Amino acid sequence: MSTLNSFEIYSFTTLNQIHKDYIYKIWNNEYPVNLAFKDLQEVDNYLNNLIHAKHFFVVNEHNQLQGWAVIFERDYEKWFAIIIESTLHHLGLGRKFLNRLKTFSTELNGWVIDHQNDIKANGEPYHSPLAFYLKNDFVQISETRLELNKISAVKINWRE
């Protein structure tokens, strides 16, 4: 079993095909099925539309990718997305990853699904990570929501 110290976090401003393939895989495995990318071209389109993106990957002791995050600019604010393989939840890795992101900005914003109505590609329920973010010094901006056909989410914010 991996321990928290057996993971390293690396950052990149440009991605290779291995990175993009991994983002496609982890996104489609861990996010709700209604948010899934149809193909690698959709991943490229998403990534190419991120402004001033800095990518982060968690790598285990066997040099395997285990998580991805990105910080980027949107509407003059710093935003982020983060995904860790669900088999590694509750090890402290999410907190470690999030704390690393916080060293690159004085503020982070994100959209978080705040309900339990979505299903992942494997048929398991998607568990809202809102409580995790609130425990890690984020605040919920209840009046700011993203309501689309494929996602219902609330804005969260962290400030140094």
From TrEMBL:
InterPro entries cross-referenced by the UniProt entry: Acyl_CoA_acyltransferase, GNAT_dom
PROSITE patterns found in the cross-reference section: GNAT (PS51186)
Top-rank lineage group of the source organism: Bacteria
GO MF term list: acyltransferase activity, transferring groups other than amino-acyl groups
Residues of the N-acetyltransferase domain: 10-160
Name under which the protein is recorded: N-acetyltransferase domain-containing protein
Species whose genome carries this gene: Empedobacter brevis NBRC 14943 = ATCC 43319
